[in-house]
Amino acid sequence: MNNADRIRLTRTARGERPQFSREPEVDRVMAIAMAIASEVAALRERLDTFETLAARNGGVSAADIEAFEPSAEHEKQREQWRHDFLDRVLYIMRSESDLAGV
Amino acid sequence: MYESVPQRPLPVLAKPSHDERARQLFAKDFRKYIMLDVPPLTRRVYEQEVKPAVIAARGAAPTTHTEVRDVMWEHGYLRAAQGLQRISQELMWGSIVPSVERQAAEINARAVELSARGVGSLDLDPKAEVPEYLTRVDIHCMPGNYHTENAPNDASQGALFDRGSFLYALGSAGDLNDATGVVLANKLKSQFPALAPRRILDLGCTVGNNTLPLCDVYPDAEIHAVDIGAPMLRYAHARATALGKVVHWHQRDVRHTRFPDGHFDLVTSEILFHEVEPDQIGAVFKEAWRVLAPGGVMAHIDIPNFFQYPDPLFVSLVDADNFHNNEPFWGEMHRRDLVQLMVDAGFPRETCFRGVAPMGTFPWSWFGAVKS
């Protein structure tokens, strides 16, 4: 399936977003901070899973990690991941933009 | 009540990846923190700082929830707390959307396949009009609301709602996301022990998670359920089929269900009315009265009536969803005279009831009447 065929869901709820802080900039920063917290929590959980499995299966050392070199394909995946990560962390920018002029 | 049961995997529910699941559970726990841990902190700010300042300035403490809201809103703490509550809701949906989107084509295909098995039925109306009051905002900030078709024959929007409503309930909904329906079904059994409905109509059923407990309590009844959102109903039919439950799903406006007069012995709803424009509540009661047979029971369960608690700070906090979570009718339902509206719809006053159907310590409201 190519990108044009991909089903898209709505990203931003219709309806005016209330202002909470006296300065709208603070609302943005707060949203970004909590989106980062969500990412940190996911990362921490992934690491926790990894550590549990590593301990169970005989281990991966710090040196293994230092010596690891991702393939070009792997690096491309990571680049895509970083893009999607930023898309999530900066979701508030998309939301405001989606609602602009609505 | 907040035991964290994992949601039971069903063929139409999106399966989150490791990190999607972690983000979803983070959003749930973020919300839980805001709903359980922060309110006592907010109360301390009110009692120790805001209230004394108001008394010093005006000679008296605020008495109504709107006064409390206004003085608390001026204080930065409530702005932060409620801003975070809004963000928790946005992150919750945001953590589910990509996982459903990734699997939308498979979900839709599975829904078609399950529907085709012919367990119960699916009656969609391409000409159905979504009531204007449901189109102004996406209710509880769910992107796309109940009716957006993400693709032809879309059920994926139902998958979004099933997961979101489960997470929103903070683990209290049970593995089938049906705790509210179970509470209603059990309450009906205890309050109307002699009721043996031949036909049941469930209003505003969404994905049918709270409809299905009626199948267990009334195994001999023919059960019909209506909603305006086609993606919800496609998902509901597939989901019920996967669970082996027989229900007939119809795309209808709850104010005009188009069933014959006197067709049902029981009309129900679960958390519908707080999403109905308050001026339209009477129209739904009238429709329920019309389709009920004499002696038939109307029974609804909805959000607790926290709005009349004698604690203005508490009420102001509960009321926040109204302003900050795209719940434009939140609370207003409980501020209306529901019994009078039922009487106006034709139900005898002495049969009308309005009380509590508790789930542990959580006081779901329940109301209804009997047709004479």
How many beta-strand segments of chain B?
Answer: 8
The oligomeric status of these chains comes to heterodimer
Overall outline of chain A: elongated
- Unreliable runs of chain B: none
* Overall helicity of chain B: 40-55%
Order the strands across the largest sheet of chain B as they lie in space.
Answer: 1-4-3-2-5-6-8-7
Could you give the order of the helices and strands of chain B?
HHHEHHEHEHEEHEHHHHEE
End-to-end separation of chain B: 38 Å
What percentage of the residues of chain B does DSSP assign to strands (E)?
A: 5-15%
How large is the share of residues in beta strands of chain A? under 5%
Computed over alpha carbons, the radius of gyration of chain B is 21 Å
How would a textbook summarize the main sheet of chain B? 8 strands, mixed
Structure description:
The complex is a heterodimer of chains A (102) and B (372). By secondary structure, chain A is mainly alpha-helical. Chain A has helices at residues 24-57, 62-67, 72-89, 91-99. With 372 residues, chain B is an alpha/beta fold. In chain B, helix 2 crosses helix 9. Chain B has an eight-stranded mixed beta sheet, sandwiched between helices. Classes of the chains: A mainly alpha (102), B alpha/beta (372). Chain A binds chain B through residues 1, 6-18, 20-22, 27, 30-31, 34-35, 37-39, 41-43, 45-46, 49, 88, 91, 95, and chain B through 18-19, 22-23, 25-27, 30, 76, 79-80, 82-84, 86-88, 90-91, 93-95, 97, 100-101, 104-105, 108, 136-138, 141-145, 148, 150-151, 154, 156-157, 160, 323-324, 326.
